[in-house]
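The pair is quoted verbatim underneath.

:::
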Amino acid sequence: MKCILILYLFSLIQSIKVNPFYNKEKLNLAKRFSTLNIVHHTRNDYKDLVQDSLQPYTVTHILSSNSIIFNENILNQEETHFIELSYSELHFRKLPPLQETVINEVYKWYPLGDCVTNNAGDKASYRQGWSIEVDFGIDYRLNYGGYFLNFGPGIKSEFIWAKGVGGDFSCDLNPGNTLQFAILFTKYEVDGIRYRSVGWGKWRKKVKFGDWKRFDKFETVGKNDIQIACFTDPRFLRCNRVKENKDEF
């Protein structure tokens, strides 16, 4: 017997949302970029910038400054405008989980919906969708830059930078037993990312840069820290959690 477990949960974690479903179309920024003919160039220094460095669908990685230059309007039809994001001063710190969301004292797991009991006479398989949605509503350019980082030889992204990540997870449950899905992840506070405008100077012979500015610090999730599990030990179950869920993480 195979059952599909559909549960409701919507927990706001400041700029992070945990959902018991996976909307691939909404979260998959890579799919939107895949429709474009994006070209990645690598330059050792600014003096190596050439004419093709500032093209609508070109992303340039500058090794000396751990930065990238790209068209911030790359996904729409607006006027081309180039920006440089520098990660040379990036720093982050791990944020502790809130104690009231802890399922047990060892691991800080967040419930993914309510409990389900297998009342059938046979073992049943239950599947749970999940997603962590990162909302950088304050500035979409952080999404773009974090995604482009992974295509260059310089600094690599350790966090979820794009819209989010998700999938599904399944567990087998013996007759008469109860389970609850849960997710474990690590939150980080990120700061120190700078940006400035980039364009051509007079006669398009020299690249012109604006003044450096700094993005506000924000929270995200470590992309390699996510774990999904099924709890069946009655000591760790938190049934009816969905109806009472008012947590803000």
Q: What stands out?
A: The first helix runs from residue 24 to 27. The longest strand covers residues 124-134.
